[in-house]
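Dear colleagues,

As part of the handover before I leave the project, I'm documenting each prediction I ran so the next person doesn't have to rerun anything. This entry is a single chain, and its sequence is reproduced below.
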Amino acid sequence: MSTAYHPQTDGQSERTIQTLEDMFHACVIDFGSSWDRHLSLVEFSYNNSYHASIKAAPFEALYGRKCRSPVCWSEVRDSKLTGPELIRETTKKNVQIKNHLLTTCCHQKSYADRRSKPLEFEVRDMVLLKVSPWKGIIRFGIRRNLSPHYV
């Protein structure tokens, strides 16, 4: 089980769920009982909000351009990418996003490492040992006390 409050775990999905809960909460406060009619606005807002881990909005990371809201549709210009240009642009964006994710992963690892303490054991130290049964591993036939699940 992982939670967003434990830095040693991933927590990405938990953080996303918490963000969406906050957005839904604000939507309920603003729109009252008709909040369910505005879910598309919440989705639009989330997909166009800046994410620090990828240094872009999810829409921009996926499609390689900023999303134009209906207010900006009158400013559409003709810029079309075809063939090799499209492949080159997409590859460049993918490399850029991977680099941003790698940098963010290193930052998050350094934050988690600050809180973690290395475990050091001495001879004759008392430790707790969790022994869970390993089903399906029977090497010694009838003499099961020699099987790996016995310590």
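DSSP finds four helices and no strands in the chain. Residues 12-118 form one domain.

All the best with the project,
I.
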